[in-house]
Structures are given as structure tokens and as C-alpha cells.
Write a structure and sequence with these properties.
Helix 1 crosses helix 2 and helix 2 runs parallel beside helix 4 (199-241). 32% of the residues lie in helices and 31% in strands. It has four helices and nine strands. The chain has helices spanning 85-99, 125-139, 166-170, 199-241, and strands at 19-23, 31-37, 40-51, 63-70, 110-120, 149-156, 159-162, 172-181, 186-194. The strands form two sheets. Strands 1-2-3-5-4 form a five-stranded mixed beta sheet. A four-stranded antiparallel beta sheet has the order 7-6-8-9. A hairpin with a 2-residue loop joins strand 6 and strand 7 (159-162). The protein is globular. It is an alpha+beta fold.
């Protein structure tokens, strides 16, 4: 029986790095979030729903747009000019995951814009971005069928690791990021790389990711509940003063 080795940061194979969620991070946005998972730091702002401009094709249904920007200081590999192919790919995956949960019928003929910013790339970036985007959309009061949580898993040095760091991702034989609606267990996104070898290894990774998504979704719900409680308290104080 193989003995799991302790990771470089002291975690067990099934442990997250320190997770921090916050809503209301951008004052001018309709909804926003700030997420830290280990050294990975992302911020998301949601704007709209708003009417389409004249350059946009008319549509009866609500539409979602998503952009991702990686700060020049977030990673030494970041290019200085333009939106990279990696940023565009991240945006596509985030949009796909969110679109499965957003109830577009609640804002017909309108657009919802989600703008994501990677402040620090520290591993499992896509998972952090999807969680942040889902939190921000919920913070904006957009109707959802559920919160979307996402979790990354890697096969590194023969071990299946939850929430891999940047170095663990770089040295991985295989990796995946799973986006999930944990309450219904509906998979709304899956991105993989490398070779998992035996099917049992991939199954183990998927089960680990699903469990991780459930943990993150619970933290996301707690964050939204705490934020709502604070807003109600402020509203009550304002009413008393009036």
C-alpha cells in the first residue's frame, strides 16, 4: 500500500490551501467578488443586465459576456500586449460554467457582463475564477439555478492532489478542473490535460473534485449569507436614523 507523501506546503493530498471569499469588492459593479485560494488571487465584477448597443446582434434571450485579464505582475509568463489566447480560453470556460446556472429568461433582450481579473496566478486559477464569477453574479442579484463551484485536481508524482499549487500543476502528469452545481450534482464544466493512465485514477480525481466543489459551495453560501446579514443590519440602522 502506497503511503501518501506530505506536500511541500504541509498539506495532505485532499486538503485545500487557505480559502477566502468576499463579495462587494468593487463599488461600481452591480455585483463583485474577491477570492484568495492560497497564493492565487482573483477579482470579478458584474455589470448589467443592460440593453444591447447598436453593434450587437439583436436577441430575444438574455446573453452573457465574459472577459479575463491577467495582470502583468501576476505571472512572469504574462505577455505585455493584448489579450492572450490563454485569457480567451479561460473566459470561454467561465462563460460555459456560468451559463448553465443563470436563468436568462429573467432578463430578456439584455446582456450581463462578467469581467475577471487575475491578480496573482498561484495554481488552480480557473477554479478560483469560476467560484469568483459565480459569487459575483449571485451578489448582483441575478437569478440562478444554483451556485457554481469549481475545483482543480492534479496527478503529481503519482499522487492525486486536490487544489494543486503552481509548482504542483507545473510538475503534474495530468490535471483537471471540474465545475459543478453541487446541490444537483450537475457537471457544468470539465477541462483536462495530460494522461491519467488507469480509469480508476481518473475516477478518483473526479470524486475528489466533486467533494472539493461541495466544500467550496458551502463556503460561498456562508459568504453570501454573511453579506446579506450585514446589509440588512445597515438598512435597519438607516431606517432608525430616518
Amino acid at each position: 500500500m502506497a503511503v501518501a507523501e506530505e506536500r511541500a506546503d504541509g498539506r495532505g493530498a485532499e486538503d485545500f490551501r487557505t480559502v477566502f471569499f468576499q463579495t462587494g469588492a468593487i463599488s461600481r459593479a452591480v455585483g463583485s467578488s474577491y477570492v484568495e485560494i492560497g497564493s492565487t488571487k482573483v477579482m470579478v465584477g458584474v455589470y448589467g443586465p443592460h440593453e444591447a448597443d447598436q453593434r450587437t446582434e439583436y436577441t430575444e434571450e438574455g446573453q452573457l459576456t465574459c472577459t479575463v485579464r491577467v495582470c502583468t505582475f501576476a505571472t512572469p509568463l504574462r505577455g505585455k500586449m493584448g489579450q492572450s489566447a490563454a485569457e480567451k480560453e479561460l473566459a470561454v470556460h467561465i462563460k460555459t460554467a456560468l451559463a448553465s446556472a443563470i436563468r436568462f429568461e429573467t432578463f430578456p433582450k439584455a446582456f450581463l457582463d462578467v469581467h475577471c481579473l487575475v491578480l496573482k496566478s498561484g495554481g488552480s486559477d480557473l477554479a478560483a475564477l469560476i467560484c469568483g464569477a459565480s459569487l459575483a453574479v449571485a451578489d448582483a442579484g441575478v437569478a440562478l439555478s444554483g451556485l457554481v463551484a469549481a475545483c482543480a485536481v492534479s496527478l503529481t508524482s503519482g499522487q492525486t492532489l486536490l487544489d494543486p499549487s503552481l509548482s504542483e500543476t507545473a510538475n503534474a502528469e495530468a490535471g483537471l478542473t471540474l465545475a459543478l452545481l453541487p446541490r444537483s450534482e450537475e457537471v457544468v464544466g470539465l477541462v483536462g490535460s495530460g494522461a491519467w493512465g488507469q480509469m480508476a485514477s481518473l475516477q478518483e480525481a473526479l470524486e475528489l473534485a466533486m467533494g472539493g466543489c461541495a466544500q467550496l459551495e458551502e463556503l460561498m453560501r456562508e459568504t453570501l449569507l454573511l453579506d446579506a446579514t450585514k446589509k440588512l443590519a445597515l438598512d435597519d440602522k438607516s431606517s432608525i436614523k430616518a
